[in-house]
Amino acid sequence: MLAEFSITPIGKGVSVSAYVARSMDIIDKSGLPYKAGPMGTCVEGEWDEVMALMKKCLDAIMADCERASVSIKIDYRQGKTDALTGKLKSVEEKLNREIKK
Amino acid sequence: MLAEFSITPIGKGVSVSAYVARSMDIIDKSGLPYKAGPMGTCVEGEWDEVMALMKKCLDAIMADCERASVSIKIDYRQGKTDALTGKLKSVEEKLNREIKK
Amino acid sequence: MLAEFSITPIGKGVSVSAYVARSMDIIDKSGLPYKAGPMGTCVEGEWDEVMALMKKCLDAIMADCERASVSIKIDYRQGKTDALTGKLKSVEEKLNREIKK
Amino acid sequence: MLAEFSITPIGKGVSVSAYVARSMDIIDKSGLPYKAGPMGTCVEGEWDEVMALMKKCLDAIMADCERASVSIKIDYRQGKTDALTGKLKSVEEKLNREIKK
Predict the structure, then answer these.
(1) Which of B38, C22, D33, D37 qualifies as a cystine partner to A37, CB 3.0-4.6 A?
(2) Subunits that touch chain A (at least 3 Cβ pairs < 8 angstroms)?
(3) Mean per-residue pLDDT for C19-34?
């Protein structure tokens, strides 16, 4: 499955990039294929491994945070792999040109 | 934590209420406190039990479905219980009147 | 169309119900059919009127707020009305029983 | 503001990349700064221009589609520009290394 998620600390001020960095460090070292975007990070893997990774990120943020808002969007598709790059490639083939990604 | 989620089967036609019913049946029998809304169902519980419930719903839908889109939004707050009813109660207290819910 | 949305102020502390109340007051007085839930409010109407309502809520919150996170989920369906109550009614008919809503 | 959005046609089969391509073509030609990701496209601009762009994409998809699910997530921040690249740059500065994006 392909999942995009973001964790936003509530009550830790307006700038939260230090918290996002904690989370990104864990994702980057997880070994799972990922792609970071301005509004969330996409990770590809099985349900259990992706959810365990999200929980690890959330725990790292909640270490000194009282409240966080988590947003998750999943594209669950039987027998599909490489959705992380394959989905946009398929769109570009239809358009016959590259898009900004 | 409080989580709202929805599972939408892709490629099973325009009307998907039969699939939503499968999911709702599992949530209703789970024993976890919940509140169904027109765009998703809110469930309150610990991370592990809520995620296990979502996976059970997803498996029931994927039994005869090739693709599904899952949307999850979580309000994770240390030491808070009864957010399922407490959040709107707190808003109504601020407004000094009832709202439609 | 049916839209669920929530606006979360970032950097205004852990408890944000005073801000949610501002938004709810505007929705309640808008005249559009709505249903408030613990994680967001569902509103039914045409694209322009629903988007104008959201912007009005956002402006009320941004009056003394530097940053906010907005989440919107839309079910856009040709020729459908009364989705606010109709969607769950259709699920209950399939289950032959009432669910908690 | 920075907005990520995705439009999923419901009832048009399992593969929807032809519809996504229609939407992407409109975004690409809009002139607004954007970045496409596997789960949605981020666009930066004022509320009115971003919402008008989304509506244009939705109309293009609804031309031969009965139902669509739209997901929008907005980071609304006073006086911030270049969030499309700035947010991840700020995270990379905190980590002192590049991440996959």
Answers:
(1) D37
(2) B, C, D
(3) 98
